[in-house]
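[Q] Does anyone have a clean structure-token version of this?
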Amino acid sequence: MPRIDLNCDLGEGVETDALILPLVTSANIACGFHAGGPTIMRKTVDAALEAGVAIGAHPGFQDLAGFGRRDMHITPDEAYDLVLYQIGALAGFVSAAGGRLAHVKPHGALYNMAATHEMLADGIARAVKAFDPGLILFGLPNSELVKAGQRAGIRTANEAFADRTYQGDGTLTPRSQANALIDDVRAAAAQAVRIAQDGKVRAGDGTDISLQADTICLHGDGAHALELAREIRARLEHAGISVLPVPGKAAKGKARRR
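[A] Here you go.
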């Protein structure tokens, strides 16, 4: 039976997080640099543990004003410091709540830049390995980020997107372009099912590209995020696809009462 992980970027101050969590299998929690902060991190970790989903760190550029979606030029060593700092911050909350961190997924511009910049990707992968070589690094299939993780000797997971469009080379359409997002819930859910079932996606130029994915992302800050989460989960299960976390360290636990 085919299987896929369904992940969502959470902890970014969106009110629907608690409703989305039971519908996904992995949560990428903002670490305070592009969104969130200590209290939101703690509450999101607690909610994720209650829901029994795998927890991942979602480090981004230090750019609250731009939501981490503006390119910033940093050195590989600065990327290492940036990512290691944020993983450690989130892992502290996860550990205090009795859980375990499972994965790391860079956010926004950091993620997109690392997809094509080898040295930047190496800095990120080194940080993940230094913190815990058992963590899984999420990245675009065939990207420099996934290759860097493989060179570093850590586990990687190929990630696809339900609510984003693709270019012919397999990269995401830049958000600066009008067609970057898929706003239609049914179309986004159909794309997710096709990726999980057939390993293919229709690019913006009309061609079909192969896209083998271990996990599919939906954005928690999207206008229809909750509706999309429900639709994707229902369609995947209807298609006979098991929705399960990427195999790895268990992040399950139960948030401690305070």
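[Q] Thanks! Anything notable?
[A] Residues 60 and 107 are 5 Å apart (CA to CA).
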